[in-house]
Amino acid sequence: MKFSITIISFILLISFKTIAQNKKDNDLTAKIDSILESNNFNGVVFITENSKQIFSKAMGYSDFDKKNILKFKDQFVIGSISKQITAVLVLREFEKGKIKLDDKINQYLTQINQPWSKEVTIHQLLTHTHGIVALDEPLEFVQGSQFHYSQIGYELLAQILEKVSNKKFEQLSMDFFKQNGLKNTFHPNNKKYKNLVKGYEENEDKLLEYASNSLDNYVPAGAFISNAADLNTWNQLLHSGKLVKTETLKLMETKYATRIHPIFDKVDYGYGLLFQDGEQNIQIGALGYAPGFASACYFYPQTRSSLIVLANTAKNLDNFKMTFKVHTEIMELMKKRMPNKRL
Questions:
Q1: pLDDT digit string (tens) for 18-44?
Q2: What is the pLDDT of residue 1?
Q3: pTM of the full predicted structure?
Q4: Which of 319, 313, 323, 315 is nearest to 70 (CA)?
């Protein structure tokens, strides 16, 4: 009899937990739907928890002129989310012993005829603390002494990767994507992507115009192409230690510099990943911006949750907090799902 009561109690406990979790998920869905509708969102939102789908929605148009309905599988330019991909490629070469993070860049980029090439390190390129503004100019500040968010630093990392791998960065990245099942993620020079949506920016008259320069940034810094499913897979692979070793992932998640951010006010930087003070184990990832595209790719370690927000309209460009309003409001909802403690 006691055995039967124990089984019944266990079943009831599981049932109550399931009901509570379903209510929690339904509440999240209702709140996200409200955010999307009230902000006239155009894009894709995808949330998983322990690989279980919690929320998935595609809404709006992939082409405003043709009125093509946007689909979940559609691809977006992911902006600075690209940096964590490049960082992983660098760290995989570090794990092979082909580079050291304190190596000076002149060991690889002999074509740079500047004194600072003998001083700036790979670590400083990864953390935006190098001070390089252009290849033909002096440093903006003494290397390692300040933070200045940089695109060219990640381009130089790609050139270093080409030297140590004997592959073009396009081939290196595409081989990496194929190896890890990221079938919808592309270096834009590959040209085999089929579902890239058009990006639109708001003009001075508050009208959306097609942004023809969405891919003009350095690819390793801000111009990879991907979709929601692949970025979710990326989060799961990266944070489970399947792309780099656990101790290497900890290097990515370590605070090296702090920035006054246009959206978060104050934020800390690791290698391609950013987080607010002490939140490496709460919310970690990156936002991405390319002309016409505003994206978010974040991971929540305590619940193994992944949040992907991909928008192909960029509004209020004079106030990035408004441009990313949907993204940050959903991020706040995700943080509220976390246990009420920092581990």
A1: 555 667 789 999 999 999 999 999 999
A2: 58
A3: 0.92
A4: 313
